[in-house]
Design a protein that fits this description.
Mean pLDDT: 81
Number of helices: 2
Low-confidence stretches: 153-173
Largest sheet: 7 strands, mixed
Distance between the termini: 81 Å
Radius of gyration: 25 Å
Structural class: alpha+beta
Shape: elongated
């Protein structure tokens, strides 16, 4: 009985020390995009509600059994010191961007009609709420080349039609 009492005292004492443990979730490895991006995205304002691209990526691993949240970020400067979220937070491995969202980002980047330029995107992964998360993991930066064609008005009889610029080989028109 004395031996059993000693084990019980040691056992209760050791449980008290476990209360001070703090678990920190840290990303285990870098995660990346798994889809193939087009060489150029020709953006037509008439198709603003169409999906321009789906950013598909593998899961970030924080080595803990908690759901991982993802946000698509855009940077006008390209270094993400000015990172802005595009759309909302998700727990899935796919984030869609519309033609309208790309047009908005292109305008913010100073890309005008009849011009081309590159937009920078990445996925940010974290556990819990974005505002209180302490550990983040990021995909490599993905440049999206966009072209905004000039909008031309042509009349046929008394009806006017609006057309986007000419298409090129290997260019995806949206």
């Amino acid at each position: 009985i004395l031996l059993l009492t000693v084990f019980a005292i040691i056992g209760f004492n050791s449980c008290q020390d476990d209360d001070d443990l703090v678990f920190t979730a840290a990303p285990e490895a870098e995660f990346t995009f798994v889809n193939t991006f087009l060489d150029d995205y020709v953006l037509n304002a008439n198709a603003a509600n169409n999906i321009a691209e789906r950013f598909v990526f593998n899961s970030a691993n924080f080595n803990t059994p908690s759901p991982v949240n993802y946000v698509l970020e855009n940077s006008i400067l390209g270094d993400f010191t000015d990172a802005m979220s595009v759309g909302g937070q998700t727990t899935t491995n796919e984030i869609s961007v519309t033609v309208g969202q790309l047009l908005e980002k292109a305008e913010m980047a100073g890309i005008g009609e009849d011009e081309s330029g590159a937009l920078s995107f990445r996925i940010k992964a974290f556990l819990g709420d974005e505002g209180t998360a302490t550990e983040f993991s990021y995909t490599p930066i993905q440049l999206i080349n966009v072209t905004i064609p000039s909008q031309v008005w042509r009349s046929v009889g008394q009806t006017f039609f609006r057309f986007a610029g000419q298409s090129g080989i290997g260019v995806h028109h949206l």
